[in-house]
Inverse folding.
């Protein structure tokens, strides 16, 4: 059988395979270069950037949960200018797509960052309107359709030819409404899901384990929620989707593609096994081969839902 074509196109950007480490779980890629060749990845999405440097939230900011983790990192990052000067050249030298993830306090800040990143030549900009761990901006923009649309318009107006992907929150009653607001405002792609708001408590001290009291849940526990939301959005909105949330194996990735994703993000799984994304690429190829699938893109949206 001829080789499986693993390549996909996400908002006009060609990825050599659909597997992308997601924002906040892969830093700027440097540490993981010790474990595997970063060029094996379809793309990589860098830690969330803000206009100015941020120290993030006080510790503890990570808590384990059954089948997942809670985090309240709070967008610790060196700021967009430092990223462009110190990190981006190394990433751009790699033969893989570079996706910059941004968060702003105001729509204008999103616009400013888009202008800088577009001029610096990143392959795609992921607009995070869904961070549950910051006070300003973040989640507020991702839970109200009119604000999500405003941020999307501002991002598009300043991103030049760079595709803009809006990252949606699962912390909403109806994710389709928010997805449509981003689509109508000109988004080129959508990514989902960000983390689900959660909490753990130490019964002895009666203190929340996270210093910020609450955090965002990710990892295998959230996969069914992510699949359901990707499926709903894919069914209602005509934009390509980077599907993420709980994907740990090639089989999970196949489910995410069938639900409607064009490409698949992996995050928390990388903390458990740094090789997880490379194993997923290999596993996906084997799965396609053994199921007579010539091109992985054939799987997108291929779920056969029951008629009820
Ligand atoms: C420690 C940590 C930090 C994160 N930081 C960001 C971030 O800076 N920007 C962002 O958009 N999402 C961030 N996320 C959310 C992930 O990108 C992803 O949407 C979420 O974890 C679900 O995927 P997973 O279950 O594969 O981890 C973070 C997640 C974790 C666990």
């Amino acid at each position: 059988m001829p080789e499986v074509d693993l390549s996909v196109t996400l908002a006009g950007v060609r990825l050599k395979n659909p597997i992308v480490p997601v924002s906040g779980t892969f830093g700027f890629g440097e540490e993981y270069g010790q474990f595997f060749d970063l060029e094996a990845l379809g793309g990589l999405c860098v830690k969330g950037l803000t206009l100015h440097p941020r120290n993030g939230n006080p510790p503890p900011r990570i808590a384990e949960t059954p089948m997942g983790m809670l985090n309240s990192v709070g967008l610790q990052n060196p700021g967009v200018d430092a990223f462009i000067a110190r990190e981006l050249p190394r990433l751009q030298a790699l033969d893989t797509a570079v996706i910059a993830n941004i968060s702003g306090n105001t729509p204008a800040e999103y616009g400013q960052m888009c202008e800088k990143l577009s001029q610096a030549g990143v392959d795609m900009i992921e607009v995070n309107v869904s961070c549950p761990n910051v006070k300003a901006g973040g989640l507020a923009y991702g839970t109200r359709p009119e604000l999500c649309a405003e941020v999307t318009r501002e991002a598009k107006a300043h991103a030049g030819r760079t595709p803009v992907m809006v990252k949606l929150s699962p912390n909403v009653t109806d994710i389709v409404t928010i997805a449509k607001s981003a689509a109508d405002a000109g988004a080129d792609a959508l990514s989902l899901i960000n983390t689900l708001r959660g909490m753990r408590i130490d019964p002895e001290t009666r203190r929340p384990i996270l210093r910020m009291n609450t955090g965002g849940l990710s990892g295998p526990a959230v996969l069914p929620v992510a699949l359901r939301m990707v499926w709903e959005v894919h069914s209602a909105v005509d934009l390509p989707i980077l599907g993420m949330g709980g994907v740990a194996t090639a089989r999970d990735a196949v489910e995410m593609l069938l639900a409607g994703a064009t490409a698949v993000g992996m995050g928390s799984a990388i903390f458990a096994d740094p090789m997880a994304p490379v194993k997923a690429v290999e596993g996906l190829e084997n799965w396609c081969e053994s199921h007579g699938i010539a091109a992985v893109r054939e799987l997108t949206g291929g779920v056969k839902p029951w008629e009820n």
The pocket of flavin mononucleotide is lined by residues 22-25, 47-48, 71, 73, 75, 101, 128, 131, 167, 194-195, 218-219, 222, 244-247, 266-269 (CB under 6 Å).
